[in-house]
Amino acid sequence: MNKREGEVSSCKKAVSDANVNLSSPIIGAFKVFQQELDTKHDKYERLVKISRDVTIESKRTIFLLHRVTSVPDVEAILTEADAKLDMVRQKIGLIADELRGEDIYQFHRAFTPGIQEYVEAVSFQHFIRHRSLISLEEINARLVFMRTEDPKAPTEAAPVGTHVLTFQVTPSDYLLGVADLTGELMRLCISSVGNGDIDTPFQLSQFLRQIHDGFSYIGNTGPYEVSKKLHTLRQSLGKVEDACYTLRVRGSEIPKHMLADVFTSRTTIMDPEEGVV
Amino acid sequence: MSVTEMFSYIQGFLSADQDVREDIRKVVQTLEQTAREILTVLQSVHQPTGFKEIPSKCMKARELFHTVRTQLSELKTKFPVEQYYRFHEHWRFVLQRLTFLAAFVVYLESETLVTREEAAQILGIEVVREKGFHLDIEDYLAGVLIMASELSRLAVNSVTAGDYTRPIRISNFINELDSGFRLLNLKNDPLRKRYDGLKYDVKKIEEVVYDLSIRGLAKEAETEANK
Q1: Phi and psi (nearest 5°) for A151?
Q2: Which positions 84-103 of A are in contact with B (Cβ < 8 Å)?
Q3: What is the pLDDT of residues B30-60, one digit of tens each?
Q4: How many structural domains does chain B have?
Q5: Are residues B101 and B116 in the same domain?
Q6: Is B89 annotated as ligand-binding?
Q7: ipTM value
Q8: Are B184 and B154 contained in the same domain?
């Protein structure tokens, strides 16, 4: 066996010494390929990294926004969330920088989780403020970045011009982000019940029902992940509808003039409901 | 914009997207058909009688590449050019097969590795993305790897057909290809998986060369060729 291997390798050596030199056209071509592939992989990795940061910051914004149910000054939280989202947008600006002149779909897989999370955060904030669904255009309109021209390029006589850089959220990413939003809305609903807010649950159930109808309308024409998320959406909707049902039933049991008292002590009434979450 | 309006806008986008994919799929099917025809033509080189007919088979294959070029130019009209990678998955497989076929023809004709430019030219497409429908570098490399396993088969069959010099030339070529691929830093992706198979091709060809040299058949053939 040993002898055989030795023979093979020496034979190979004799053969390869004759012809494989490092300046052959094939090796030359592969050196070019190496560079091209490395550049591409590096860009991909950078995008993954930015996308992770976007995800983390968006998640934190969502946690912050969940506090609106328990504090008196909603506006302060919304402003703080705005500041956080501005930071996220700057990160997305970095993605747009990386993608300048590229086919965005080539690297789409690298940054789609971050973008979906951003859509979730920004639409959540929009809902708390306006009680409506943010549209795709509204999201994209805020992802326009001004960039000062690279100072290295033309040195003299060229005015330092700015140019506009945009980032477009794809409809699929928007859709998946909105699907994630419904989970947050369910949490918001349950916690606002816990805090004695009787209006929000009904608004939320109506809003969730509209979104649910929207997703049913799209059905399976959408990307594959949508059908998976639709299942979770149904569960969230179920929880919210149950909460509203309980509110209505318990509410009618109690005389009108005593309602206020009941709602102040709602926390205890609704405790079993919270356990479900 | 109400929720319903928003969703019907998205739905419109999604169904338009599906229509485009449907169109692409139809063209890709015809391309796959042509690729199979070319493969059938080239497969005959593995027959003992086929070795003498290599040039004529290559000619025939090149003729069939005309059809490929028209089909690919039809494919180009089915979607906006800057969205190449959005639909890439649909033609990725067939484009790799076609690159393999082009590379195989070029190898049989001149025993050289097809360059990316040549391959793109045979298929009637571009090399750089900016210029339009192009040959992605990973698809090109994947096509070259498919050719490597085809060549290891050819080495075996050429011995059966009594051609003892061809395996040695193939061995040189594959070795060079192997050292080329070793320069690349591949990620854990499909290309890397395919590259992992290259060593078995190399091994197989080395065994063939070994069998020939231990029986003195390689030398014999060489001296004969020198005469």
Answers
A1: -65, -20
A2: 101, 103
A3: 999 999 999 999 998 888 887 888 899 999 9
A4: 2
A5: yes
A6: no
A7: 0.89
A8: yes
